[in-house]
Amino acid sequence: MADRLPILFILVTVTLDAMGIGLIMPVMPDLIREVQHVGLAGAAQWGGLLAAAFAVMQFVFSPILGNLSDRLGRRPVLLVSMAGLALDYMIMAVAGSIGWLLAGRLLGGITSATHSTAAAYMADISPPEKRAQNFGLISAAFGIGFVLGPMLGGLMAGVDTRAPFWMAAALAGVNLTFGLLVLPESLAPAKRRTFQWRRANPLGGLRQMGQLPGLGWMLLMLFFYSVAGYVYPAIWAFYTQAAFGWSTGLVGASLTLYGITMVFVQAVLIRLVMPWLGEVRAVFYSLILDAVMLLAFALASHGWMIWVFTPLAALGSIATPALSGYMSRQAGDDQQGELQGVISSINALCVIVAPVAMTQVFFWFTREGAAVHFPGAPFLLGLVLMLVALGLFRVGLGARERV
Q1: Is 194 exposed, middle or buried (0-12, 13-18, 19+ CB in 10 A)?
Q2: Cα(208)–Cα(202) distance, integer angstroms
Q3: Residue 384 confidence (pLDDT)
């Protein structure tokens, strides 16, 4: 039991991280309108800017924290991150202006190493051939949080727009206490390496990881894949309101459905599919499915279609752990934190670009006086980017085979 407690903490950490995101996602449009006194299209613009501010900090600090975890160990980085998340949610809970919401997002971005360091911790304790499956457990934990978070967020938002933020802060605080009690260090002193600033910045880390065989193309592919996939969190609440007139409760319910399917995929299906398909084919077929579903959401004309498409779209989530497992096997034991930091930086760069791009497309196609009212337009942009990711993945495999 003592050996399982650290794994339990890692999975609970990722679950609560996702719960925190899911708790606040349904209520963010209402909260922004409350503090800024703007309409839905204007709130979408502000939502994109807040997400981009979070991502800028994450882009800059993720490789720093990833390299620190390779030097100091995973435990201190994880615990500091949880404390930062708790403070972030508390600031947003009391925010009375867009400036305070921005301050909370900046702090959250700085300390947002939770997921990447959790992945590095899991890599430390997993044999290489099992990493993709264990990364699937992390993704499943994220999915569980995404089931519970939107459901609770939608319910609590009906009481007060600030209640979900207080709940998220409390959950982060409880998990911080749990980690202080049960989490040992996973990175042995012999496997640690000297902290170097030239590798602890986004460009230096990307350059270092890009020198590993085949990883340069895969990291570029990850950028386009992540930007395309970010269309869902960037505009989901706005899209479903504008296209189908959904309430906050229905938005939360749809996210819950996605989370339930994602948990099944990551905890059960991946363990059946991975030995059969392998990491490469699992990623390839998932990208094709993702492209088809982006087109389906763009053209959806009735609300009932969303309930059909959502679980199908969740099946594509198998690509994330499969790709992480593939890239993790290309890096050494003393580079896992650095690799996860670089991956987080790429994801953060996507979150800088994607929310602004997606919400701007949404704004121009839903604003008053728009030449064409088309709430699904951002999904078409996501489709184009997903096809680019698919092409880069094929190129990356070719580069790897020539090595």
Answers
A1: exposed
A2: 10
A3: 95
- 385: confidence class by pLDDT, cuts 50, 70, 90: very high
Q: 329 phi and psi, to 5 degrees?
A: -70, -15
Place of tokens 């049960």: 182
Distance CA 259, CA 143 (A): 5
Cα 347 from Cα 230, distance rounded (Å): 9
Range of the structural domain that residue 72 is part of: 4-183+197-397
Which of 377, 346, 373 is CA-nearest to residue 361? 377
Tokens of 81: 């991150």
> In 97-201, which ranges are continuous DSSP H helix?
98-110, 114-124, 131-157, 163-182
Higher-pLDDT residue of 240, 149 = 240
Distance between first and last Cα of the chain: 44
Q: What integer is the mean pLDDT of 385-399?
A: 85
The predicted pLDDT at position 402 comes to 41
Question: Tell me, what's the pLDDT at 265?
Answer: 81
Most confident of 101-115, 132-146, 233-247, 387-401: 233-247
- 73, 185 contact by CB (below 8 A): yes
- Tokens representing 33 are 């309108």
Domain count, the chain: 1
Tell me whether residue 15 is in a domain: yes
Q: Tell me the CATH number at 108.
A: 1.20.1250.20
